[in-house]
Design a protein that fits this description.
The chain is built from 8 helices and 12 strands. By secondary structure, the chain is α+β, with helices and mostly antiparallel strands.
Length: 229
């Protein structure tokens, strides 16, 4: 795509587009990151591949939030986009609740985090499927599980590791006397993840020794394991 074509799209939308998206369009007119497909610019040479373009996605009859422009979708009705009053800050519009959630300061940051999340969960699932075991820490020898407060929601994050070394690396400070726990993968899939989803808990996968890492909802972890199996 050329800058002239992108500017024509912006004129049709009545708003400038995020700088990161403009840059991406110069190299590729149709792409996906994680679970989201980014709308292309309509190209008459490849009409069948680009008919679902960004202008069509923002047509009035879709009843998107006022001043919200969508740039990507996840296949289930939720849209990723920005407000015309601040084209760089990125939001998700949750269609079931009609709410906007601020998720990143820029499209570049959102893409970076999305790719990191995808790498971590895919590596975790690959390892536990191979070993048949999920690892963790507990203050007790046979019961309990180490957890930390979530930084994105008002809930707790249970920490799961794909290797015993990863879990043991977190035995420090207040967790110095914690014990290594092994959980069979089939029990993790059939029992733990569904129960955590019911309780509103999150999964922390392969966190670093300073107890930092990505947080995932249990349904996403379950779905990824099932797809990889």
């Amino acid at each position: 795509m050329s800058f002239e074509t992108i500017e024509a799209v912006e004129q049709a939308l009545g708003s400038r587009l995020p700088s990161g998206l403009r840059e991406a369009w110069l190299h590729d007119n149709k792409f996906e990151v994680g679970e989201r497909f980014y709308y292309p610019i309509k190209d008459e040479r490849y009409f069948n591949k680009t008919w679902d373009d960004i202008i069509r996605a923002n047509r009035d009859e879709r009843q998107l939030p006022k001043d919200f422009i969508t740039v990507a979708e996840n296949g289930s009705g939720d849209e990723l986009g920005f407000l015309t009053s601040d084209v760089e800050t990125i939001y998700i519009w949750w269609h079931e609740t009609d709410e906007l959630e601020r998720v990143a300061d820029s499209i570049d940051l959102f893409v970076e985090v999305t790719r990191l999340e995808s790498d971590v969960i895919e590596r975790f699932c690959e390892r536990v499927l191979e070993s048949g075991t999920v690892f963790g820490l507990s203050a007790e020898t046979d019961v309990g599980w180490a957890y930390a407060p979530s930084i994105i929601e008002t809930t707790d994050v249970l920490l799961f590791f794909s290797t015993p070394e990863g879990a043991l690396a977190c035995k420090a400070e207040e967790w110095e006397d914690y014990h290594l726990i092994e959980l069979p993968l089939d029990l993790f899939v059939a029992g733990w993840l569904p129960n955590m989803a019911d309780d509103g808990l999150l999964c922390g996968l392969d966190w670093s020794s300073d107890l930092k890492g990505m947080e995932y909802d249990p349904e996403t972890v379950l779905e990824t394991i099932e797809e990889a199996d």
